[in-house]
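Fill in residues.
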C-alpha cells in the first residue's frame, strides 16, 4: 500500500523498535509509513534511512562541531515537555519546514490528547544567558532512537544547531549501547533532507523488508516512476479520443487511507480530471491505483465539511499557494480495468 496508518493504544520500547525496522515512523500520536509524498508541486519517493551504531564513530568534522558547540552552549536531556519558550521557538522555525506542518508543538506530539504512548525525550540547547536557542525531540525504543524534530532560533543559524542536536542524540544513543539511530526519511533525489546523510554510513529500507547500505541505493526502485508511467498511458489514451483533461497533484491523498471514515476519500496523489462534464459540483477523475494495479474512472466531489482534518496540511497548502484545495471524496465508480485503453473505452460507453 502507498500509505499505512496505525494508532497504538500501547507501545513498548521493543515494539517501537520493530515498527521502526519495518519502515514506519511517528507522526503525532500515530505510526505512519508512506512510499511517496507530494511537496512543492512534485512527487517524491520516500527513502527511510537508519544509522547502524555498532562500531560507529563520528567523523572528524562532526566531532569538531560537537566539541565547539559544547563549549559555547549548555544542553540538557529530559523527558519531553512543552512550554511557552518552546512553542515560541517552534513558531519562529516553522517557515523553514518543508512539507506538512503542525500548528504547534502540542499538535505535533499529542494531537488533541494530553499524552501519548511514546517514550519521548528532548534536548534543550541554551546560550550563555540561558535563552533557549535550539530544541529536539526523540523517541526511545529498547535498542534504537527515532529522531522526531529539531528546531533552532534563526539568529543562531551559523552554529549548525540542527546538526548539533542530532549529534547529541547520537551521542546519547551510543552511551546506552543502542543499535540504531533513525532520523526519518530522505527523498530519492536531492532535497533539503540530505543533510542527514552527513552523519555517517546509512542504510535504507527497500520496502521488501530489508535494510541495505545506502551507497547501493538504486533510483530505479521508484514507486513514483511506475505511477507516472501508468498516468502517461492514460494521457495517451484520452488524447486519442480528443478528451480534454488536466493533470493534478493531490497532496491530501493520505486521507484516503485512513480507516473508519464515513466517506471514501480520494487516495491518488496524481490524477487526471476531465475538463468538460455535465455535472454540477462533481468532477470525473481518471486514476491509477498502484495498490491493486487497476485504472479507475470515478465521479468525485469536494467535501469542505471535512476540511477540519487538515490541521497539519493547512499550513503546507497555504505556504504552497494551494489554499483553495479541498478534501475530495468518491461519489460513484464509473469504470475500472487493468488496461488504460479498456478503461477509456468503458468511460466512453458510459457517456453514451
Amino acid at each position: 500500500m502507498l500509505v499505512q496508518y496505525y494508532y497504538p493504544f500501547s507501545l513498548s520500547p521493543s515494539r517501537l523498535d520493530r515498527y521502526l525496522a519495518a519502515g514506519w515512523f511517528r507522526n503525532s500520536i500515530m505510526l505512519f509509513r508512506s512510499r511517496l509524498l507530494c511537496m512543492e508541486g512534485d512527487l517524491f519517493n520516500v527513502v527511510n534511512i537508519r544509522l547502524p551504531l555498532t562500531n560507529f564513530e563520528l567523523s572528524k568534522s562532526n566531532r569538531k562541531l560537537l566539541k565547539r558547540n559544547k563549549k559555547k552552549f549548555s544542553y540538557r536531556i529530559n523527558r519531553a515537555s512543552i512550554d511557552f519558550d518552546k512553542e515560541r521557538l517552534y513558531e519562529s522555525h516553522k517557515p523553514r519546514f518543508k512539507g506538512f506542518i503542525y500548528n504547534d508543538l502540542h499538535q505535533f506530539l499529542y494531537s488533541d490528547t494530553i499524552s501519548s504512548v511514546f517514550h519521548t525525550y528532548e534536548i534543550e540547547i541554551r546560550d550563555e544567558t540561558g535563552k533557549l536557542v535550539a530544541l529536539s525531540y526523540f523517541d526511545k525504543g529498547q535498542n534504537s532512537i527515532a529522531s522526531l524534530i529539531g528546531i533552532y532560533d534563526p539568529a543562531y543559524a551559523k552554529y549548525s544547531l540542527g546538526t548539533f542536536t542530532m549529534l547529541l542524540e547520537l551521542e546519547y544513543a551510543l552511551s546506552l549501547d543502542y543499535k540504531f539511530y533513525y532520523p526519518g526519511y530522505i527523498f530519492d533525489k536531492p532535497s533539503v533532507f540530505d543533510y542527514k546523510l552527513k552523519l555517517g554510513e546509512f542504510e535504507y529500507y527497500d520496502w521488501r523488508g530489508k535494510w541495505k547500505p545506502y551507497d547501493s541505493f538504486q533510483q530505479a526502485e521508484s514507486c513514483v516512476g511506475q505511477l507516472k508511467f501508468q498516468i502517461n498511458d492514460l494521457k495517451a489514451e484520452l488524447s486519442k479520443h480528443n478528451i480534454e483533461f488536466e493533470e493534478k497533484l493531490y497532496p491530501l491523498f493520505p486521507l484516503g487511507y485512513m480507516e473508519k471514515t464515513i466517506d471514501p476519500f480520494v487516495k491518488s496523489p496524481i490524477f487526471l480530471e476531465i475538463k468538460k462534464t455535465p455535472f454540477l459540483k462533481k468532477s470525473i477523475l481518471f486514476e491509477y491505483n498502484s495498490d491493486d494495479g487497476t485504472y479507475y474512472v470515478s465521479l468525485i466531489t469536494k467535501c469542505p465539511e471535512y476540511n477540519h482534518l487538515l490541521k497539519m496540511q493547512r499550513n503546507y497548502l497555504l505556504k504552497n499557494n494551494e489554499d483553495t484545495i479541498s478534501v475530495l471524496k468518491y461519489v460513484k465508480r464509473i469504470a475500472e480495468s487493468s488496461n488504460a485503453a479498456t478503461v477509456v473505452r468503458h468511460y466512453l460507453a458510459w457517456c453514451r
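DSSP finds eight helices and 18 strands in the chain.
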